[in-house]
Design goal:
With 124 residues, this protein is mostly beta strands. It contains no helices and 11 strands. It has strands at residues 2-6, 9-11, 17-24, 32-38, 45-50, 57-59, 67-72, 77-82, 91-98, 114-115, 119-123.
Length: 124
């Protein structure tokens, strides 16, 4: 599985960005997918995730109501719409995927074996 993120950039506080994660190499579409972020000097944290059945989405408390995760199975693409951005959202954003992730663990980094290289988001 290969994951390639895009859509990062610099934006003023209150602005919006939409991140994309193009996936390839899937043998099955039944993958849990997620967005994580990591700020300098901080641990990587889960931001939003969708389970393998696409029946459960979950968000970190810090982004609830501002970020929306979605995926397009026909395009094998995962998205993260980010609105009302704050300076504290500044980080490198990574997408991740794995087949066997329990719904209660969707935002745990160690549950995912496949990762993209990341895309930088800077909010000033």
């Amino acid at each position: 599985v290969q994951l390639v993120e895009s859509g990062g950039g610099s934006v003023q506080a209150g602005g919006s960005l939409k991140l994309s994660c193009q996936a390839s190499g899937y043998t099955s579409r039944r993958y849990a997918v997620a967005w994580f972020r990591q700020a300098p000097g901080e641990e990587r944290e889960g931001v939003a995730a969708i389970d393998s059945d696409s029946t459960t989405t979950t968000y970190a408390d810090s982004v609830k109501g501002r970020f929306t995760i979605s995926k397009d199975n026909d395009k094998d693409t995962l998205y993260l719409q980010m609105n009302s951005l704050k300076p504290e959202d500044t980080a490198m954003y990574f997408c991740a995927a794995d087949r066997l992730v329990y719904s209660c663990n969707l935002l745990l980094m160690n549950e995912y074996r496949h990762w993209g290289q990341g895309t930088q988001v800077t909010v000033s």
